[in-house]
Amino acid sequence: MTSHSEHAALAAAVAERRDREAFTRLFDYYTPRLEAYLVRLGSDSASAEEIAQDALATLWRKAALFDPDKSSLATWLYRIARNRRIDMLRRDRASIVEPEDPVFDAVDGTDIEGQLDIQQREEAVRTALSHLPQEQLVLVRLAFFDGLTHSQISERTGLPLGTVKSRIRLAFTRLRRALEAGGVAEVG
After folding, report:
1. CA 164, chain centre distance (Å)
2. How far apart are CA 5 and CA 159, in angstroms?
3. Per the confidence metrics, is the pTM higher than 0.70?
4. Per-residue pLDDT tens over the stretch 32-80
5. How far apart are CA 3 and CA 114, in angstroms?
6. Nearest Cα to Cα of residue 34 among 75, 63, 62, 3
7. Smallest Cα–Cα separation from 34: which of 19, 45, 20, 24?
8. How far apart, in whole angstroms, are the C-alpha atoms of residue 142 and residue 173?
9. Torsion sign across C-alpha atoms 157, 163, 165, 167
10. Alpha helices for the chain (secondary structure H)
11. CA distance 131 to 140
12. How far is CA 120 from the centre of its chain?
């Protein structure tokens, strides 16, 4: 089972009919591949297994969001897994995030069955960031480019912690809307 169209058809069966057999075939095919990908990014095997299962659970719950005209099912699932890993790293702030960490690299260059146009996505993100109000942009930069926690941002800027969280949340809402309007939507 390696055909893009076959994978898309199975995903459509999951979306339309909650087809368990189609889901099982996709689960069996993608689970070991996602786990291996996550281990290559630096996850331990237990985390890789958990994230891969979470990505496939997203397929079960949100298969209708998959659009075969925008990407292959593999690209969609790998992006979900990558985003889940980033979320997990942010939650587990015990380890300091290094900008060179491979998690921040684009889905690796092995052309995961139709990799997205990275330069176009980066430009869309830059454009969306440029439209943020300055008070939100400063906080987003501190959080994601400087790797500061919300508490550290609050200490550095003198803003209340709740204000920091609210402004970052508002910024992400604006960014998501701008990216979706430009056809660059995150999944998961």
Report:
1. 22
2. 51
3. no
4. 999 998 888 888 888 889 999 999 999 999 988 988 888 889 889 999 9
5. 12
6. 75
7. 45
8. 17
9. negative
10. 4-17, 20-40, 45-62, 73-91, 118-130, 134-140, 150-157, 161-181
11. 13
12. 17
